[in-house]
Amino acid sequence: MKICSVVVPVYNAELFLAGCLCSLAAQTYSALQVIVVDDGSTDHSAAIAQSFCHADKRFMLIQQDNQGQGSARNIGMEHATGEFIMFVDADDTLTVNYIEEHVQSIGNSTMTQAGYQRVLEDGTVIETCLPRHNCQFTSPCMRLYRREWLCQKGITFPQGMIYEDVIFSLYVWAARPSIVFVPSVGYKYLLNPHSTTSKKDPIDRKKLYRAIRKSQAPLWLKIYTRLRLFIHFMKS
After folding, report:
1. How far lies 1's CA from each of 17, 81, 140, in Å?
2. pTM score
3. How far apart are CA 68 and CA 85, in angstroms?
4. What distance in Å separates the CA atoms of residue 83 and residue 148, rounded to the nearest whole number?
5. How far, in Å, CA of 106 to CA of 181, rounded?
6. Within 10 Å of residue 119's Cβ, how many Cβ atoms?
7. 63 pairs with which residues across the strands?
8. How does pLDDT run across 152-190, given as a tens digit for each residue?
9. Rg of the Cα atoms in the chain
10. How far apart are CA 11 and CA 17, in angstroms?
11. E strands in the chain
12. N or C: which terminus of the chain has fewer CB atoms within 10 Å of its end residue's CB?
């Protein structure tokens, strides 16, 4: 079986991390390398991750001073050895056959794209989303990538900002990957009011728009992304 590396950036996620890692340990696709990157947590997140490392040799923990989610994901990418790579946030979970679905679907394509369900802490599903086209979702999650392709294209996450996932996705799309759609909503995205992106900071949003403008993405994609973000921020 081809190995899939899964990068999980963590910052003060002790309330949700065990659920996330349990969902990875239970995957029907067993050829995994789970890289948990603790980004300077001040709670018990590192201890929780370490307990999984002791119990399952597929798990590894990397600790660093707090540098932000972009840095944590990049560190995870540097330690990844699998043919495939996937990103999962520390407060989210996957259905048990989620990774297997993506590995079986990717074929000769560069990456996969699937949907997700937005859920509350008690598991209640409040929204189910499937992409209408390949450039709709800016999250790096809900995808399986060929790791070698990301390396060849030099695609990493920008650091020193939030919403780094948007810029990463612009880099990916601008590189013209071949994408296969997986009709799955097995990614459970937790509506977490304490997450970084739930903070309404106009300065962070200005940084994001500036980064979009400076990116090498096609003009139409920059305009489309800014419009979708404007609508999203108006609703939030």
Report:
1. 27, 13, 24
2. 0.91
3. 20
4. 7
5. 9
6. 18
7. 38
8. 999 999 998 989 999 999 999 999 999 999 999 999 999
9. 17
10. 10
11. 4-10, 32-39, 59-64, 84-87, 93-94, 111-113, 116-119, 125-129, 145-146, 179-181, 187-190
12. C
Q: What are phi and psi of 107, to 5 degrees?
A: 55, -130
* Rounded Cα distance, 103 and 43, in Å: 34
Residues whose CB is less than 8 angstroms from the CB of residue 220 and which lie 6 or more positions away in sequence, other chains included: none
In 3-state terms, the chain is what percent helix, strand and coil (to 5)?
40, 20, 40
φ, ψ dihedrals at 93, nearest 5°: -135, 165
Contacts of 161 (CB under 8 A, 6+ apart): 68, 70, 167, 204, 207, 208, 211
Encoded tokens for 200: 């309404």
**CA within 13 Å, CB half, 200:** 7
Structure-block tokens of residue 171: 């880099």
Q: Would you say 85 and 4 are in contact if contact means Cβ atoms under 8 Å apart?
A: yes
Instruction: Find, among 36, 77, 38, 40, the residue nearest to 53 by Cα.
Output: 36
Give the whole-angstrom CA distance, residue 5 versus residue 189. 20
CATH topology of domain 4-194: Spore Coat Polysaccharide Biosynthesis Protein SpsA; Chain A (3.90.550)
Is the per-residue pLDDT at 196 higher than 60? no
48-104 pLDDT, tens per residue? Answer: 999 999 999 999 999 999 999 999 999 999 999 999 999 999 999 999 999 999 999
Amino acid type, 84 = F
DSSP assigned state of 161: S
The tokens describing 96, both together, are 């048990």
Token pair for 54:
């002791």
